[in-house]
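Now read the record:
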Amino acid sequence: MSKLPFQLGIHPINWVGEDVKEHGDDTTCAQILDDIQRLGLKGTEMGRKYPTDPATLREELSKRNINLISQWKSVLFSDPAYRQAELDDYRRHAEFLQSMGSKVISTAEVGGSLHFDPRRTPHEKEVLRLSDAEWHVLAEGLNQAGAIAQEHGLKLTYHHHGGTVVEQPEEIDRLMELTDPSLVYLLFDTGHAYYGGADPLEVLRKHYDRIAYIHLKDIRPDVLDQARAEQSDFVGCIRRGVFTVPGDGCIDFAPILQELITRGYNGWAMLEGEQDPAIHNPYEYAKRSLSYMESLY
């Protein structure tokens, strides 16, 4: 991947599910990091199998010459009652990532989400979209969290995400309009853009100036269509195998990579599959995906 001006890493979610716990649950941290090293990649995100003690984690990563690029952070800023506790937690998160040498925080609002909002009850069926008031409260909270990130030499990169209130193209647009460009950046995710009903290339072009981090993920459209026809929720879609690595689904990555190269993107991009590793071997799929992207240039 030396032809690419940006840095390519891989997310441990290819080996171990975050939202679907049974996916790869027996996989160890050593197996994941050894595979990443074999792939020749130098960056990873935090995963639930990685040690949480910074010294231990630093040792495991450094002996394989791998960097910790980011870690997901759920926030609940759309409800003012949660604001101060959420900001305090965000500061602790930023302190950890700063200690690991990371530069971006993958951040997503969970208010209204079917699966991630702590206020939701079992058996509810759909995401609760935000009111105008909640949108403004969310933006205010993100700006404050973005300032905390900045204090620690980090950028808050907002992850538009399936099954959340910032999922559809118009929701991405609104979030970008309401937040401060100097404090809130965008984590552009190709798979989640498609899942949310957007053309990933259009999202990239429209919001390029806000993008500070990227996830490269593909979609199996037939699986998605079937899941939608059966009214499957987001986690159900993952279980069905909606997501896969670049080159194995329907997204054309040639113009996406060309756009990034032309514009001189020099941040990190993570390969993501988020599928059952027992069926789709993470190392083999990643290897093929790397070959696919290399073949585009």
